[in-house]
Write a structure and sequence with these properties.
The structure holds 2 protein chains of 2 kinds. Chain A is mainly beta. Chain A is 0% helix and 54% strand. Chain A has strands spanning 4-7, 10-13, 19-25, 32-38, 44-51, 57-58, 67-73, 76-81, 90-98, 104-107, 111-115. Helix content of chain B is 0%, strand content 52%. Classes of the chains: A mainly beta, B mainly beta.
Chain lengths: 116, 116
């Protein structure tokens, strides 16, 4: 399957700072990528769909000014958590869509964010 | 709206034995995809198996196989000869077929423990 990388794998930051998470599609050009959030012992919650060259599509209840998504190239999408607060602490996962493999989603290894 | 239900929050199996994880879904669509993803303690989401709804033949991948019952909207995962490395959260997921329809709907997951 496709290979997706995320960086950093974990980050600790102070409340009020912004944190950028990178998601890279290593095998192919991904025009569509997804960002998920996962709380402990829960399923994945879709936050937004990242579209190359256009604005991201956010799910209901997700603050677009809080979670800035940029998909400036076909292999890179970034999620910036702006003015992070402790309630933003979570596990963030991205995925890309492999069009050559029945549009299957393959996931990055995730980023663990802890806001103090 | 599509929903995916995993009725077993936790399951356990003896090493080398067989276990079946249940998944049901609700949809009015006739063409779609179903997936099982595995999330081990590392939290990396790994695709286990995929099933196209238009295919009557059940998908198999080595020790993993599914029992797809389209009329009953059931999609169970059977793991044969269970190994310690199979211990993980397993998520059932659904996606409608069609261009641009890449979003996954996940179940809440089943935690599988493998007893040595």
């Amino acid at each position: 399957g496709a290979v997706v990388s995320q960086h950093p794998s974990w980050v600790i930051c102070k409340s009020g700072t912004s944190v950028k998470i990178e998601c890279r599609s290593l095998d192919f050009q991904a025009t569509t990528m997804f960002w998920y959030r996962q709380f402990p012992k829960q399923s994945l919650m879709l936050m937004a769909t990242s579209n190359e060259g256009s604005k991201a599509t956010y799910e209901q209840g997700v603050e677009k000014d809080k979670f800035l998504i940029n998909h400036a190239s076909l292999t890179l999408s970034t999620l910036t958590v702006t003015s992070a607060h402790p309630e933003d602490s979570s596990f963030y996962i991205c995925s890309d869509v492999d069009y050559q493999n029945q549009e299957t989603q393959y996931f990055g290894p995730g980023t663990r964010l802890l806001v103090l | 709206a599509q929903t995916v239900t995993q009725s077993q929050p936790e399951m356990s199996v003896q090493e080398a034995e067989t276990v079946t994880l249940s998944c049901t879904y609700d949809t009015s669509e006739s063409d779609y995809y179903l997936f099982w993803y595995k999330q081990p303690p590392s939290r990396q989401m790994i695709l286990v198996i995929r099933q196209e709804a238009y295919k009557q033949q059940n998908a198999t991948e080595n020790r993993f196989s599914v029992n797809f019952q389209k009329a009953a909207k059931s999609f169970s995962l059977k793991i044969s000869d269970s190994q310690l490395g199979d211990a993980a959260m397993y998520f059932c997921a659904y996606r409608i077929s069609g261009a641009g329809s890449y979003q996954l709907t996940f179940g809440k997951g089943t935690k599988l423990s493998v007893i040595p």
